[in-house]
Amino acid sequence: MIMVQQHNDARGSLSVLDDEALPFPVKRVFWIYDVPSEAERGGHAHRTCTELLFALNGSLRVTLTDGHQEYTVLLDCPTQGLIIPAGIWCRLHSFSPHTVVLCLASEPYRPEGYLHSFEHYLAFAASIEHNSDTL
């Protein structure tokens, strides 16, 4: 998680995210909205792309796994960003009404960079573990 600066006054709130605060250079920006509460997004992992998610409005839960451990994070504050490293499976779910999620990505969109099958993801994660064990 990263925290973003917030400035409040009688006119409202303003949050700032400078290059120095980003964990990677941003190559793509997109946002997700109008998601029905029972729907899920994500359900994939990236081979090499890292993402940073913010719930700009509303809330959602993000469930992450490395193939061994699973964590669920509540995103409900526009000044808290969740970093999803490459090689982590994620599922976005439990969207509240009017949720808007901002995603900053370290790479442009490349379909071949996605792992959409959890079984393929587990094989990918095992190969990474095996390769790191031999280094």
Structure write-up:
The chain has 135 residues and is mainly beta. It contains 1 helix and 12 strands. It has one helix spanning 118-133, and strands at residues 2-3, 5-9, 12-16, 28-33, 41-46, 51-57, 60-65, 70-75, 80-84, 89-93, 100-105, 114-115. The strands form 3 sheets. The chain has a 5-stranded antiparallel beta sheet, with no helix packed on it. A 5-stranded antiparallel beta sheet has the order 8-7-10-5-12. Strands 2-3 form a two-stranded antiparallel sheet. A hairpin with a 4-residue loop joins strand 7 (60-65) and strand 8 (70-75). The two termini are 29 Å apart.
What's this, in brief?
Helix content is 12%, strand content 45%.
Keywords:
single chain; mainly beta; five-stranded antiparallel sheet; 1 helix
Question: Which secondary structure elements does this structure contain, and how are they paired or packed?
Answer:
Layout: E1 2-3, E2 5-9, E3 12-16, E4 28-33, E5 41-46, E6 51-57, E7 60-65, E8 70-75, E9 80-84, E10 89-93, E11 100-105, E12 114-115, H1 118-133
Order of helices and strands: EEEEEEEEEEEEH
Briefly note the structural class of the backbone.
mainly beta
Major β-sheet strand ordering: 1-9-6-11-4
Work out the number of β strands.
12
Low-confidence stretches: none
Biggest sheet character: 5 strands, antiparallel
Instruction: Quote the distance from N terminus to C terminus.
Output: 29 Å
- Name the overall outline: globular
What is the count of helical runs? Answer: 1
Share in helix = 10-25%
The averaged pLDDT comes out at 93
Give the radius of gyration: 16 Å
Strand content: over 45%
